[in-house]
């Protein structure tokens, strides 16, 4: 049974949760939207759900009310830690709060059983958090994450699209990506300057093609670091024979498939 809980605005007032820029905070208080995010994450009944940056706990409530076996909330703002610990008292051992910076924490080591990450990510650390999780992606069943719309568009972009870039390639190499839905800036308190988008990433059984992570990162960083240049210029320092791989040296990074980037990474690894 769902416990009787105070409105989120009352929680904000009680714990003094004015949104702070240094934490990248924009609180989502619409319970219909938080419930929709929880539903996008699929069946939670057998999962440990890890939430990063729960704030006053709107999404946390939705995950628990949506049947999550356990929710582990990772929060670095001491005011929000106190608010989530208070919320935990209503959910009989199903909610645990960890006072930590998610950038410094191994989320794969938290909880038991299948693990899903579901989070409204702080904009200022969303990309480094995602890249860190991709390195251990097979430890998770799925990631359902809210990004600013521009970042989400990169995750699902295809070759030839102007938003296709390094983050697109790294993510799609390891995951199936799904654009779930957009959320207007006016849904947040305070409103951010941009719209947000919820995306679900599901790990592939195998990467698109074989490649060493470190080398793959190096190749994509070089290629997209100078994306207006032809590959023969942007990848010059890597000494790779693109023509032998069937890749046009005059092409630009945004036209290459994930599989082609993997081929370049393998070639460099064996030089």
Structural description of this entry:
This protein has 271 residues and is of the alpha/beta class. It folds into two domains: 8-203, Rossmann fold (3-Layer(aba) Sandwich); 213-269, rRNA adenine dimethylase, C-terminal domain (Helicase, Ruva Protein, domain 3), CATH 1.10.8. 34% of the residues lie in helices and 18% in strands. The protein has ten helices and nine strands. It has helices spanning 8-15, 31-40, 58-65, 78-88, 126-134, 149-156, 166-174, 213-225, 231-234, 258-269; strands at residues 27-28, 48-52, 70-75, 95-99, 115-120, 142-148, 175-183, 188-189, 196-203. It has a seven-stranded mixed sheet. Strand 5, helix 5 and strand 6 form a beta-alpha-beta unit. The longest helix is centred in the last third of the chain and has 13 residues, at 213-225. The radius of gyration is 20 Å and the shape is elongated. The mean pLDDT is 94.
How are the secondary structure elements laid out?
Layout: H1 8-15, E1 27-28, H2 31-40, E2 48-52, H3 58-65, E3 70-75, H4 78-88, E4 95-99, E5 115-120, H5 126-134, E6 142-148, H6 149-156, H7 166-174, E7 175-183, E8 188-189, E9 196-203, H8 213-225, H9 231-234, H10 258-269
Parallel strand pairs: 2-3, 2-5, 3-4, 5-6
Antiparallel strand pairs: 1-8, 6-9, 7-9
Number of domains: 2
Instruction: Please compute the radius of gyration using only Cα atoms.
Output: 20 Å
Largest sheet: 7 strands, mixed
Please report which band the strand proportion falls in: under 5%, 5-15%, 15-25%, 25-35%, 35-45% or over 45%: 15-25%
Estimated structural class: alpha/beta
> Count the helices. How many?
10
CATH class call of the largest domain: Alpha Beta
Specify the CATH homologous superfamily of the largest domain. Answer: Vaccinia Virus protein VP39
Q: How many DSSP-defined strands? A: 9
Low-confidence stretches: none
**Distance N terminus to C terminus?**
61 Å
* Spatial strand order of the main sheet: 4-3-2-5-6-9-7
Helix content: 25-40%
The pLDDT mean sits at 94
Envelope shape? elongated
Could you please say which CATH topology of the largest domain applies here?
Answer: Rossmann fold
CATH architecture of the largest domain: 3-Layer(aba) Sandwich
Helix/strand order, N-terminal first:
HEHEHEHEEHEHHEEEHHH
């Amino acid at each position: 049974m769902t416990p009787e809980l105070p409105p989120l605005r009352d929680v904000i007032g009680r714990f003094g949760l004015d949104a702070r820029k240094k934490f990248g905070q924009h609180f989502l208080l619409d319970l219909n939207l938080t419930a929709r995010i929880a539903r996008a994450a699929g069946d939670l009944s057998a999962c440990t759900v890890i939430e990063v940056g729960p704030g006053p706990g709107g999404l946390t409530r939705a995950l628990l009310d949506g049947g999550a076996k356990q929710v582990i909330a990772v929060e670095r703002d001491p005011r929000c830690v106190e608010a989530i610990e208070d919320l935990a008292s209503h959910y009989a051992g199903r909610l645990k709060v960890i006072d930590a910076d998610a950038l410094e924490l191994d989320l794969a080591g938290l909880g038991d059983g299948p693990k899903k990450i579901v989070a409204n990510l702080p904009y200022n650390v969303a990309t480094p958090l995602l890249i860190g999780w991709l390195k251990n992606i097979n430890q998770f069943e799925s990631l359902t994450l809210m990004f600013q719309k521009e970042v989400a568009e990169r995750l699902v972009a295809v070759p030839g699209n102007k938003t296709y870039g390094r983050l697109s390639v790294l993510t799609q190499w390891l995951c199936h990506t799904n654009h779930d839905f957009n959320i207007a800036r006016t849904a947040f308190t305070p409103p951010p300057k941009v719209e947000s988008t919820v995306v679900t990433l599901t790990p592939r059984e195998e990467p698109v093609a074989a490649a060493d992570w470190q080398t793959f990162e190096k190749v994509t960083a070089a290629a997209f670091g100078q994306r207006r240049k032809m590959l023969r210029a942007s990848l010059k320092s890597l000494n790779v024979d693109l023509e032998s791989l069937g890749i046009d040296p005059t092409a630009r990074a945004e036209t290459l498939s994930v599989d082609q980037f993997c081929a370049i990474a393998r070639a460099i690894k064996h030089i």
